[in-house]
Write a structure and sequence with these properties.
Length: 74
Amino acid sequence: MSVEITEELLSSVLAQIKASPKCTSGSLKGREADNLLAIRELRRRGLITGKFMDDSRRDQHGPLLYDAARLEAL
């Protein structure tokens, strides 16, 4: 993936998850592909929980996310 995950993107996605607990990746504002990358990174950092569906595609960090639901900030 050529998209760079910025701290600004991570903060934006995390703020949206905090404002709407149990939301889905599709309900977040912004480009869904970018949001899914941010969700994957937030999960890796241990900042969120939820139900995560891996995609068959991978990058250097592992499987990409296909979807995410029931997102909650820790």
